[in-house]
Amino acid sequence: EMHFLPDIYVTCDVCKGKRYDRETLEIKFKGKSIADVLDMTVEEAADLFKAVPAVRDKLETLKRVGLSYIHVGQQATTLSGGEAQRIKLSKELSKRATGRTLYILDEPTTGL
To answer: Quick one: which of 88, 80, 74, 69 has its CA closest to 112?
Structure first.
């Protein structure tokens, strides 16, 4: 990494910045490729996957913690501290309930 020059980003001529080869992008779910899905918001993806409970439930949990606007493929480094905390919270909340878990939240809105 050179600290005296600005970062330069060049779009790949093969994938056009979609990060997948042609064969992978040809695979579609309801007309959407993996690149299309990663570019969707959580809200849009939840609608697309409403008939796939394992995916839908995770996306619905993200919506419930107020993250319906982020993109499914958004890089973690672009998230604010509060957004990152809410993703961790949604991961925990989406686990199967056993009836043996007690959550103690100390100032849960700090940083949100």
So the answer is: 80
